[in-house]
Amino acid sequence: MPHYPDGIVQANVSGSEMNQAGSDPGISAEIPAANPLRFPVSGAAEAGGDLELTIYEQGFAMVKETREVELESGANRVEYTDIASGIIPSSVLVEDPEGGEVTVLEQNYEYDLASSSGLLERYLGREITVTGINGEVYTGRLLNHEGKGIVLETESGEVMVLQEVSGIELRNASELSTKPTLVWEIYSPASGTRKLLTSYLTDGIGWSANYVLKSNADDTETDIRGWVNIDNRAGMTYENAVLKLVSGEVNLVSSPVRPLPAGRAKETAAEEQAAPAFTEESLSEYHLYTLDSPTTLKNNQEKQISLFSIDSVPVKKELIYDSALGERVRISLTFENSKETGPGMPLPAGVVRVYKADSAGELRFLGEDGIGHTPLGEELKITVGSAFDLAVTRTRTDYRRISDNVERVSYEIEINNSKSEPQDVTVVEHLYGEWKILENSDEYEKTDAFTIEFRVTVPANGTKTITYTAENRF
User: What residues contact residue 133 under an 8 Å CB cut-off, 6+ apart?
Assistant: First the structure.
């Protein structure tokens, strides 16, 4: 057992080193020194960098905060409250950045819900007073409880089973924690005020990215708005926190999912008109986005914060038919994520929603698509929906087996345009094996080892037919 100055030794703890809520309060650590002093440490950290919240896309966050603690020389009992109910106790790290001499000897996580079952569980083996349904009063040691039944052992050793009771009196209930509390046994070599830096992980809070595209009349430019959506169900309000967001998949060991609080209305924060901006930097193989001013995240609240805003990004509209993806002609908008044209920063995965003004100047929703993590310099292709006035019929017109490993296949692709203006359509065809095109009605482009594209114009109120024959060796 390691020794500390002045005879302080590391506390012995029955069971696991970190007791979860519901552990027996009668089990206490014995520290051979002066009686530990009790110092509650509560209240939100002050603004200006004392509270930092780093949120990950996978639904958890790292909380870092600095609080002042008054300590006496020797052993101290410190109750650290105002923490998230979704806290992962085994992730807690306590540091003394200034002196480095404060030592945490033991940590307990306590959270006694104010329910009859939770309270009685904490009082097993302890003395309680019970009032029966007819007003009779019994005092004894609680042996068991189930439903409305109570089992008591009186001072005389008599065991009583009470099927129903009208009231229960618990003694010394002030020691119970009715909200999440970290209880530390801390050794300090000297008396005085210490600034302790506490870090921990918590479940129940995550973030995602959302994007809004507003396309111009001829779909050649778009205004793009990036938004961060934060959902805080961690059981705590974070006041004036320095906010950081991590984009990327962090490896986690599977753990039980903590249920979200039930029965509470969820608040949604309004989009801020003059929202502060995020700065982006690399973090190992991830990307870190830091809000340039502190913000407040209320418990059970969804909050939207502007990630970026940029106008007049060049965009290309395409009508694409790919039989592997469906029978309709898809509408897509394509733009490059570049510093020259925008947005000019690595884009977290999220949902992109596209809008466009009608003839009256009113915005209309055109469709939405999901994008993956998109590095700087990559191209984004957003599928908006399907073209109403274009219909395609694809037919295999001939098939010949030339030998055991050679075949020839002919296709006809007919595109009908019901609009009063011509439509440019890209037709995507997928081949296999060692292939070659023997006959083709239109020029094509080979885009990869097994894909070709025909780029054709379908006349107004007319039809365009593409034919080709391919030989496949396999």
Answer: 164, 165, 166
Task: Tell me which residue has tokens 């190992």.
Answer: 284
CB 344 within 8 A of CB 377: no
Among 391, 429, 385, CA closest to 410? 429
Lowest mean pLDDT among 115-124, 134-143, 389-398, 453-462: 115-124
DSSP 8-state class, residue 177? -
List C-alpha distances in Å: 338 to 163, 374, 377, 441. Answer: 73, 11, 5, 37
CA atoms within 13 A on the CB side of 160: 20
Three-state SS at 5: helix
Distance CA 471, CA 385 (A): 33
For residues 141 and 4, give the distance between their C-alpha atoms in angstroms, rounded to a whole number: 38
Residue length of the chain = 474
Strand pairing class (205-215; 165-170): unpaired
Q: What is the pLDDT of residue 260?
A: 40
Query: What pTM did the predictor assign?
Result: 0.71
Q: CB burial class (10 A; 0-12, 13-18, 19+) of residue 442? A: middle
Peptide bond between residue 346 and the one before it cis (omega within 30 degrees of 0): no
Q: Which residues pair with 109 in a beta bridge?
A: 182
Instruction: Tell how far CA 436 is from the center of its chain.
Output: 48
> Do 124 and 144 meet the contact criterion of CB atoms below 8 Å apart?
yes
Q: Do 370 and 208 touch, CB atoms closer than 8 A?
A: no
- Report the candidate in 278, 258, 274 with the shortest Cα–Cα distance to residue 209: 278
- Phi then psi dihedrals of residue 364, to 5 deg: -130, 145
